[in-house]
Amino acid sequence: MSTGPAGGRRRLPLSLRRRAVPWDRQRPTWREARPAVISGALKRAQARPSGNWYVVGASRDLRAGRPLARTVAGQEVVLWRDARGRPVAGPGICPHLGAPLRDSPVRCGTLVCHWHGLALDGGPFAGWEPFPVHDDGVLLWIRLDAVGGEAPLDAPVVPVRPDRALTAVYTGVGTCEPEDVVANRLDPWHGAWFHPYSFVDLTVAGAPDGSDGSGDAFTVDVSFKVAGRLVVPVRAEFTAPEPRTVVMRITEGEGAGSVVESHATPLGTDDRGRPRTAVVEAVVAGSDRPGFALARGAAPLLRPLVRAAAGRLWRDDLAYAERRWALRSTGRFPD
């Protein structure tokens, strides 16, 4: 993909679509989006080890002095930072009489049960056993061996990220299972049809056939819409490094090396017995342009905008995932 005159980088990251095609006149992609290719990529992703690690939220959501509560696969978990600022995690049910530890305060790095004062510093105590926890600087992970049932790994499978990046994390919840979220991301052909407000001129330049696991990636040429006919063209790769994660990495064009990580975490079931899944998406954007340092400095202002853009996409993509689960659960999903 050419990025500027004589193959050099454009002075500005924007391009002007000179032959803009209306949505209903773009090239259909349904013949290329073969169900067998998507399901094959999904099965290979599900066969990769996760080490029983689950994403529970953004690193910045875990602040000193207050706990963070989550439910993963029906299990209550609680996280907080100890006196040294390190994350600790464990069951969210007090082992004494079952108090919800999510409502208990943290004092000097110790979680103090608000029912009877049982104090937890993060180590095993009074029947409470901690879970392994990992803070990668962007996301928080916990390891639940009883839930995952795999051979445990010492650390989660964290994708390579750009240095000195602008980061933002979006979280949404849908009525589906993690595989439905992953299947959505392993279908890049729907992008310009389902999200015309964000993507145009999308072409899947390469799709995996499973013959070479090391090259199990979807390669996509696409332009991100900015305003009117102004776009940012890039080449990106979609890969699934573990069963509940799909990574989009920009390989050519503006922001090369930047990643969007989509993580799916099972929450449990709702009052009707339907599965609920959280999507935790981390946008980790980098650039070697001199002005990007200003963008990093303005991160507190930019993060809400990035989250809003991710939220608009995921309103659609969760509808896709929910529809897929509804059809699968009733035996109506196309073979």
UniProtKB/TrEMBL annotation:
Keywords annotated in UniProt: 2Fe-2S, Iron, Iron-sulfur, Metal-binding, Oxidoreductase
Under InterPro entries, the record lists: Cholesterol_7-desaturase (IPR050584), DUF5914 (IPR045612), Rieske_2Fe-2S (IPR017941), Rieske_2Fe-2S_sf (IPR036922)
UniProt keyword Iron-sulfur present: yes
Pfam families attached to this UniProt entry: DUF5914 (PF19299), Rieske (PF00355)
- PANTHER family this protein is in? 3-KETOSTEROID-9-ALPHA-MONOOXYGENASE, OXYGENASE COMPONENT, IRON-SULFUR DOMAIN CONTAINING PROTEIN
The superkingdom listed in its UniProt entry is Bacteria
The segment(s) forming the Rieske domain are 53-142
Q: Does the keyword Oxidoreductase apply?
A: yes
For this entry, the protein name equals: DUF5914 domain-containing protein
The organism named in the record is Streptomyces heliomycini
PROSITE patterns the record matches: RIESKE
UniProt cross-references to SUPFAM superfamilies, sorted A to Z: ISP domain
